[in-house]
Amino acid sequence: MNILVTGGAGYIGSATAAQLIEGGHSVTVFDSLVTGHREAIPAGAKFIHADLGDFQAVESAFRHNAFDAIMHFAAFIEAGESMKDPGKFFRNNLAYTLNLLDVGEKFGVKKIVFSSTAAVFKSSEQPLGEESQIEPANAYGFSKYAVEQSLEWYRKIHGLRYAVLRYFNASGAMPDRGEAHQPESHLIPRIMAVALGQATHATIFGTDYPTPDGTCIRDYIHISDLVSAHLLALDALVDHDKLVYCLGSGNGYSVRQVIEMVEKVSGKPIAVVEEARRAGDAARLIASSEKIKKELGWKPQNDDLEKIIRSAWDWHHSHPNGYHRD
Ligand SMILES: NC(=O)c1ccc[n+]([C@@H]2O[C@H](COP(=O)([O-])OP(=O)(O)OC[C@H]3O[C@@H](n4cnc5c(N)ncnc54)[C@H](O)[C@@H]3O)[C@@H](O)[C@H]2O)c1
């Protein structure tokens, strides 16, 4: 297939693009590089350096390429920032996605796989599945849910076939691709920076959550398992017009447990500073991914925290400056 990968210079998009190419697909990466890295775009992908907010650039991409499907990763992802500047997230994540959907419709592209998030759900003691209560704790989560709902209207009105993948915390690395957000707010790479001597301490935001050690609990899913789910979802759109799946390992780890695992794997002590809770952080988000396992035969291979942290440590240790060599 000829596939448009928006956000293909980012962490998850670039890893998926690489896997698609390996599987024999043609890939065009559309990315503004606002947070992504040119170096992460796989060799073998075409690259369009443009912003989804630029309607003409989006049109031109579709006019010059006969895409069969879209994989839509491009977004702003900082939940904390979304609670300070929600308009930035609604514009980039929702409004600019409508450019993509409208142009896709104009050029007859009928399949899309969309990166959604666990942040659409209300925090719960129970593992979260597709039917769990939707109640985003932050504007980022709302922006993603608004896209999910828009996709449903495009399905009803235009016959768009879509797969929504609500993932929990993407983590870990492939040998040549790792997590390097700019700025980095994600827990594991921030702790890695401390282990590498690039930061003085890791910050724990909130130690009074109703969890066993008082810190937030999250479900970490390895990047390679996320990528395999995207490929399965894309294939499944041949037979289905609407797929919604939760993707996670099903295991929850507290911030303190993650820090301890990095200490174990890296052999370095991690200094910690405790601060107040951040707005928009849910206490506990753990996935139930039974539906995608049952329906698409998805089998996560790296669902253990130690394996995830080891792969992340290997990448950060061998790429101390991320994708930048200097
Ligand atoms: N990282 C996670 O843990 C996680 C969890 C759940 C969902 N997601 C979703 O997965 C997707 C990818 O996340 P990631 O961690 O790879 O983030 P990332 O920041 O590494 O990648 C996002 C990419 O999108 C590009 N981009 C952003 N806005 C754009 C625009 N308007 N036009 C063109 N390009 C634009 C950026 O330059 C970047 O390359 C996002 O949609 C995110 O919401 C991520």
- C-alpha-based Rg, rounded: 19 Å
Number of domains: 2
Q: Any idea what the CATH architecture of the largest domain is?
A: 3-Layer(aba) Sandwich
State the separation between the terminal residues, measured CA to CA: 37 Å
Question: How would you spell out the order of helices and strands?
Answer: EHEEHEHHEHEEHEEHEEHEEHH
What is the overall pLDDT average? 94
| Unreliably modeled segments | none
- Percentage of residues in DSSP E strands: 15-25%
The CATH superfamily of the largest domain bears the name NAD(P)-binding Rossmann-like Domain
Shape: globular
Give the neighbour order of strands across the main sheet.
Answer: 3-2-1-4-5-6-10
Description:
By secondary structure, the protein is α/β, with parallel strands linked by helices. The protein folds into 2 domains: 2-170 and 219-247, Rossmann fold (3-Layer(aba) Sandwich), CATH 3.40.50; 172-218 and 250-318, UDP-galactose 4-epimerase, domain 1, CATH 3.90.25. It is 37% helix and 19% strand. The chain has helices at 11-22, 55-63, 79-82, 86-106, 139-158, 187-195, 223-236, 255-266, 290-296, 305-318; strands at 2-6, 26-31, 46-49, 69-72, 111-117, 161-167, 169-171, 202-205, 217-222, 242-247, 252-254, 272-275, 284-285. A 7-stranded parallel beta sheet has the order 3-2-1-4-5-6-10, with helices on both faces. Strands 7, 9, 11 and 13 form a 4-stranded mixed beta sheet that branches. The chain has a two-stranded parallel ribbon with strand order 8-12. The longest helix has 21 residues, at 86-106. It is globular. The chain starts with a strand and ends in an 8-residue tail after the last helix. Bound molecules: nicotinamide-adenine-dinucleotide. Nicotinamide-adenine-dinucleotide is lined by residues 6-7, 9-13, 31-36, 51-53, 73-75, 77, 92, 96, 115, 117, 167, 169-170, 181.
